[in-house]
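Worked example 4.2. Below are the chains of a multi-component assembly; read each line carefully before continuing.
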Amino acid sequence: MNNPKEEIITSALSGFMELLPAQQILFNKIFDEIRKVYEVFGFIPLDTPILERSEVLLAKAGGETEKQIYQFKKGDTNLAMRFDLTVPLARYVAEHYGQLVFPFRRYAMGKVYRGERPQAGRFREFYQCDIDVIGNETLDIRFDAEIPSIIYMIFKNLGFKNFIIRINNRKILNGFFSYLDANQISNQIMQTIDKLEKVGLDEVNRILLDLNLSQDKINKIFDFINLNNKTKNIISDLNNLNIKDVQFITGVKELEQVINIIKEFGVPESNFAIDLTIARGLDYYTGTVYETRLNDYPEIGSVCSGGRYDDLASHYTKHKLPGVGISIGLTRLFDQLTKRGVWQTENSSTTRVLILPMTTDLVPSIKLANKLRINNIPTEISFIADKIKKALGYADKLGISYAIFIGEDEIAKNLYTLKNLKTGEQELLDLEQIIEQLNIRSF
Amino acid sequence: MNNPKEEIITSALSGFMELLPAQQILFNKIFDEIRKVYEVFGFIPLDTPILERSEVLLAKAGGETEKQIYQFKKGDTNLAMRFDLTVPLARYVAEHYGQLVFPFRRYAMGKVYRGERPQAGRFREFYQCDIDVIGNETLDIRFDAEIPSIIYMIFKNLGFKNFIIRINNRKILNGFFSYLDANQISNQIMQTIDKLEKVGLDEVNRILLDLNLSQDKINKIFDFINLNNKTKNIISDLNNLNIKDVQFITGVKELEQVINIIKEFGVPESNFAIDLTIARGLDYYTGTVYETRLNDYPEIGSVCSGGRYDDLASHYTKHKLPGVGISIGLTRLFDQLTKRGVWQTENSSTTRVLILPMTTDLVPSIKLANKLRINNIPTEISFIADKIKKALGYADKLGISYAIFIGEDEIAKNLYTLKNLKTGEQELLDLEQIIEQLNIRSF
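Applying the procedure described above to all two chains together yields the following structure tokens:
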């Protein structure tokens, strides 16, 4: 190609997050923390391909989702980039059914793709951090109750106190709409209720009348969602509505069980609540549903959502595979919280110490570096230590906390001068003292 | 869609690695080990998008590479999936030049895509694990010498002893071919030399004659590559060839420096060697080049390769950015070594202990689980502990090492029965003893 230099746009594509080093280090720290929690709860890692046959990804998709999918043809095969981690999980479990142990607890943390029109806070490539527990034919309701304790540990470990895991059960909603003989328009009703805070009661009432609901039914809807404002006894209030619909009754019973076990799981009462307005999309979930909100940033919306489904992989297998899972959209969450300064970057390097050899002989510096590295202390050796100002400038710009000077004197005494670059203090230490000092982390 | 159940092929695409849990756990263990080494050497993480503008990825590509790239159009934009991690790095450094600190040491570990015709041992989606050190205008040769010590630590930590990092310098080759006035056919000569072991000296001689080389020049080529078989004094032998080409002389000098510093870096003499036949593709690299072979599995070829380049991002920026880097093709390496049984899977779960509540009250089990999890011990609670055989069967199938039984007795005494599921031994222990016991890992 002839000199394309002038023409090439070197920016990353719009809607594709790309981070500078300090941000990337922070992102990875959060990613690793989520991964750690998933692992201590006994979830197994799974990494499926980003590309799948289009027919696999589109088996269930439709409408908006289908339009957003990155699809193309290579040779004779129609390919698509995954738009979530659940459809590949369904395909995986169907394919490897005989080789898996159920309940199958898996976590997956990877990139997914949605070619949406780019808008503020939306991404076309983003990380999802998912867990799911998949049962074979049945799955105990206690798995539904364990999920909030995982959400709780994650957000607590990420430094939050003020968040609420909101819980509902789709059977209650389905049963309630059946009871109103309004199943056909349940979607529109839920969307209208969602606008309550924004447009007020009168406007919501007007829209519901437009949906051909009688004022009597609308009043029942208001009574139902008003239960939400109560913090206690929602379950008995739900029972007191005296709705005889079987689904409704089952849903209330399941919700009661889940709420009771969540308490046993040690999630503080201030961090979870029943929220009867949560539906999480109307096709997929069939039982418990979750959303999680940060009370100080309600405008972000839910930061961790999920729920129970009756049958994960009905498009790919005849085995009935009920499951429960959650997803954290980490790219968006990271974007929102760093913008607000809630998550703040620190250093542009994870290097803990820069070794400056003050002699031409590199061997003492290299020996020390090797020992520090074996002790998991990220270490660099400066190859410009003769230009000491430049070497320390490099450390300063990256936020490296310590420097070690190794000159004739230090070599003779088998000691090292450790300088704290943030405070300017320096000490003459032996190897063990150096390791001890460098192992004290601020996080 | 109407009942597509019968038609959907549920297998992952051919050429796309997908692992069962035990394999995935092993893969992640190796991935994490490589990442750890990169981090202790002070490399900064970088994660660029998998999709880029086609013009960015194709600025330098051509021929075979271009045919393999997954490309498609979405809206008005030509998109392509990255086929390596170096081109996106070049684009990134050009774009963020003013915000980076040089030398910029970055690691990247992610999936890349090549739509090759699938064949045994080749993948269309695979992980590359890369490091590069990028200088601004200049980059000290000692960075070239540091790279083998990183390769050494990685393969040592992965359990290998018997491997050789082969080192050459492209200037020596370029200078040598200049001296022979054979630069135009250097590519074909190198490819012919590569066949030496396979087809023998006579056949190689014949092919070289076909390339219109004189027997005198061919003899010089044989003299040159014969130096390879010597283990000592290759540098002085190269000097003794008395080749006056400037590039050749510079190359020998650089190689000498690199080899000397590698020794200082503590890489054992048995783990590195000069290999004058290594070229690593003829366009990209301009100085030091590396390959790494496992002596016991020579047929795998190089497991970690790389080198020095003069200018990373000439297609995107006028800044001169010399660099040196390596790449490990982890997907292929994993495939090759697990097939041979060199890397063996162990368990299908990383869960360390399964808690079996023997009472209906879950609280003591949950409290214990929370304490173990805070101590980073992956823990599950069985919700089928009433079916004790089934619960232990689950642990057994996953390879979980320990079970803890919590019954009335244990609750009363505030002790726990810890059972080693591999040996059958069981002990009554308190919390601290449990944590201590479970923290002893086999790896």
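Take a moment to check your reading of the output against the notes. Chain A has 17 helices and 16 strands. Chain A touches chain B through 101 residues (CB under 8 Å).
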